[in-house]
Write a sequence for this structure.
């Protein structure tokens, strides 16, 4: 172990991972720089934009707000792990594609991870007001949100056929 580093072990997208990190390493840095899972984006460095949202132990978390060392033993799910690599897209991913819920795509992974968590917490019947209120911590600079809201409502309905545990994955 190098000076000023520590080992952290966690599960990322269903796979056990151990990494040697500087104690100041943020989860987003661990994911992007150490594990090369670059679907999680850094948009603001101030926890304002939501581009870095992942699920930690089943709950949406801005990965730029938590140190990697705080997550020893945690289960982390990123956009790369939302759907099986050789399977179909997750229903929320498919809804974003079908409803044109993205333009540049930079905020999309965080939006999708937030949306899946929203369905886990609020259920499958989401109205426009609830969706917009729940997206308060996610910023999109391209779309004006209309198609994102439409995509989340469609994705929530499509997730109805999945179990609550599977939907939260």
């Amino acid at each position: 172990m190098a000076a000023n580093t520590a080992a952290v072990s966690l599960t990322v997208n269903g796979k056990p991972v151990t990494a040697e990190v500087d104690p100041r390493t943020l989860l987003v840095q661990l994911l992007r720089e150490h594990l090369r899972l670059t679907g999680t984006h850094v948009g603001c460095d101030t926890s304002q934009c939501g581009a870095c949202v992942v699920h930690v132990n089943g709950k949406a978390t801005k990965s730029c707000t938590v140190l990697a060392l705080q997550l020893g033993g945690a289960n982390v799910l990123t956009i790369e792990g939302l759907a099986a690599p050789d399977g179909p897209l997750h229903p929320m991913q498919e809804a974003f594609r079908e409803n044109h819920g993205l333009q540049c795509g930079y905020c999309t992974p965080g939006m999708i991870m937030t949306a899946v968590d929203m369905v886990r917490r609020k259920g499958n019947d989401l109205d426009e007001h609830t969706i917009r209120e729940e997206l308060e911590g996610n910023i999109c600079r391209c779309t004006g949100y209309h198609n994102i809201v439409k995509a989340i409502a469609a994705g929530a309905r499509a997730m109805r056929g999945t179990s609550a545990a599977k939907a939260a994955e």
Summary: The chain has a mean pLDDT of 92. The longest helix spans residues 108-122.
